[in-house]
Write a structure and sequence with these properties.
Layout: H1 4-20, E1 53-55, E2 58-60, E3 70-74, H2 77-82, H3 88-96, E4 101-106, H4 108-114, H5 116-133, E5 136-141, E6 144-146, E7 151-152, H6 161-174, E8 181-185, E9 189-190, H7 202-219, E10 224-228, H8 230-233, E11 250-252, H9 264-271, E12 281-286, H10 295-311, E13 316-321, H11 340-358
Parallel strand pairs: 3-4, 3-13, 4-5, 5-8, 6-9, 8-10, 10-11, 11-12, 12-13
Antiparallel strand pairs: 1-2, 6-7
Helix pairs in contact: 3-5, 4-5, 6-7, 10-11
Length: about 350
């Protein structure tokens, strides 16, 4: 027989250990195993499309041939998915308009609410479909406001500098080496909204963008970051004296009709056209007058802006392939019938592409 005293002592020590050990809930978070979301994608699809790089003031492919992009923006994938219209057919319709690139706007509020991991699923699908269809992708952090002071035009655009840095770090890491998502539009439209969103000089905006670009390039040196001018991505006049101190980038302009009055061309030349001789300038968003998609009110502007961009050998993207966001390009998700604005962009893309092929 074992001594009873030893059994009692063992029981006392066991109880004391249990009482002193911290309780662990069933859903205990083993934080030391955490990893960043969105590990690098892999597979043969990464290099299906030729890589694109900056050469002088143009975009060129692997053979050194100039590539001019003409395409359409879709609405936010989160919106489209919630409406039950997120599928490859959407991108087929855009391709059939004549597009060789799709601009995908990611709103900060959608990125947070869906969560980055689940939002990347949508982007992965879009990039897979576009790769199969032979179209490149531009990812756009779709905020409007003053990133310097973190003040924004509407709640959907609210973000922080830290969230913006993390967004681009996640995107760069996830798509490193993938040729299809070639352009990263760092911030959609910086604006001070006539002073109601505070102040931010070009020098401050320049530094913010340089930090983000160096972050992206440290992970993936092949991507082409896009830097917007102030005044809702319109004014690039600071480039005459103070361009960014980074390589392999392009600048963004959104030349909507309300930005300047006719005659347009001299003002376009002064505000952004002058820079084309030194840097790639990409018109990543423009369209007809907000709330009026008709050709009667916009035909003269439309003909003028496309002619100007083509003469400058500038790439461009129309806004927006959606039946609700304006100016609308389609009337309905069911029919995908084009509005007059949509017909204008389709004709412009197909006419411009055909003209380039004849040269």
């Amino acid at each position: 027989m074992k001594p009873a005293g030893k059994s009692i002592l063992t029981l006392i020590l066991f109880c004391a250990t249990v009482m002193l050990s911290p309780a662990q809930p069933k859903d205990y978070h083993a934080w030391w195993h955490d990893q960043h979301v969105g590990g690098p994608v892999a597979g043969p699809a990464l290099s299906v499309l030729p890589s694109i790089r900056v050469h002088g003031s143009q975009f060129v492919n692997e053979q050194g041939d100039t590539v001019i992009f003409r395409g359409m923006a879709i609405s936010d994938p989160d919106k489209i998915e919630h409406q039950g219209e997120w599928n490859s057919a959407l991108f087929e319709h855009v391709r059939d308009m004549g597009a060789n690139i799709v601009r995908i706007p990611v709103h900060p509020i959608a990125w947070r609410e869906r969560t980055p991991a689940r939002y990347l699923v949508l982007l992965d699908q879009a990039i897979e479909w576009c790769t199969r269809l032979g179209m490149y992708v531009m990812i756009d952090w779709h905020s409007i406001g003053n990133l310097g002071m973190e003040l924004y035009q509407d709640p959907m655009y609210t973000t922080t500098r830290t969230e913006t840095y993390e967004f681009w770090r996640t995107i760069a890491r996830h798509y490193q080496g993938h040729h299809t998502p070639v352009f990263y539009e760092i911030f959609n439209e910086p604006t001070l909204y006539r002073g109601t969103l505070g102040s931010m000089a070009w020098s401050e905006w320049k530094v913010i963008n340089e930090k983000i670009i160096r972050l992206i390039k440290a992970i993936d040196s092949e991507k082409i970051p896009l830097v917007a001018g102030l005044d809702w991505a319109y004014d690039l006049t600071p480039l005459a004296d103070d361009p960014l101190d980074v390589e392999g980038i392009a600048y963004v302009v959104h030349p909507y009709p309300h930005k300047r009055t006719p005659p347009y061309e001299p003002k376009w030349e002064e505000n952004f056209g002058f820079a084309v001789s030194r840097y790639p300038v990409f018109a990543t968003e423009f369209s007809f007058t907000l709330g009026d998609e008709g050709i009667k009110a916009n035909g003269a502007y439309g003909a003028a802006i496309v002619a100007y961009l083509e003469a400058k050998r500038m790439s461009w993207i129309g806004w927006v392939y959606d039946p609700e966001w304006t100016p609308r390009v389609i009337t309905s998700w069911k029919t995908h019938e084009l509005t007059e604005c949509g017909t204008f962009f389709k004709d412009a893309m197909q006419r411009s592409s055909a003209a380039r092929k004849r040269k």
